[in-house]
Amino acid sequence: MNVDDIHTIEDYLPQTLRELIERVEKSSTFEQMIYRESEMDEVWRLLDNDIAASARQGSNTREVRNLVALRKLIVEAHDFIGNDGNTVDARDRLVKAVELV
Q1: pTM of the complete model
Q2: What does the DSSP 8-state code read for residue 58?
Q3: In a structure prediction context, what are the per-residue pLDDT tens digits for the chain, which is 101 residues long?
Q4: Host domain of residue 72
Q5: What is the count of structural domains for the chain?
Q6: What are phi and psi of 3, to 5 degrees?
Q7: Among residues 37, 40, 35, which one has the least CA distance to residue 17?
């Protein structure tokens, strides 16, 4: 796993989030933080799409609330990385996100 590259994010399944957590834990440089932010941006985008699709399809409220809660954790992790390179709190949010998936 190379933390000096941006990794493709195709879903927000637990394994994908666990791999992201590993990269967050190993990231320390400014560039690496930007790469992790970019990866979280993609998770965020995927969640936004699924939230909108679920709402359009009339999915149950619990499912939509779970997706919204998951997105909130991803946004918080993103902000911890982006604002001050706080990998500890970012990791904690991502671990909670894995528990929701």
Answers
A1: 0.93
A2: T
A3: 799 999 999 999 999 999 999 999 999 999 999 999 999 999 999 999 999 998 888 777 888 899 999 999 999 999 999 998 999 999 999 999 999 98
A4: 14-100
A5: 1
A6: -80, -5
A7: 40
Instruction: Tokens for 82, please give them.
Output: 């982006």
- Which tokens go with 92? 């904690």
Q: Alpha-carbon distance 51 to 64, whole Å?
A: 6
What pLDDT was estimated at residue 58? 77
Domain annotation covers residue 94: yes
Does residue 4 fall inside a structural domain? no
Is residue 91 assigned to a domain?
yes
Q: For residues 71 and 44, is the Cβ–Cβ distance under 8 A?
A: yes
CA gap 10, 18 in Å, rounded:
14
Residue 19 covered by a domain? yes
Rounded Cα distance between 21 and 98, Å, is 10
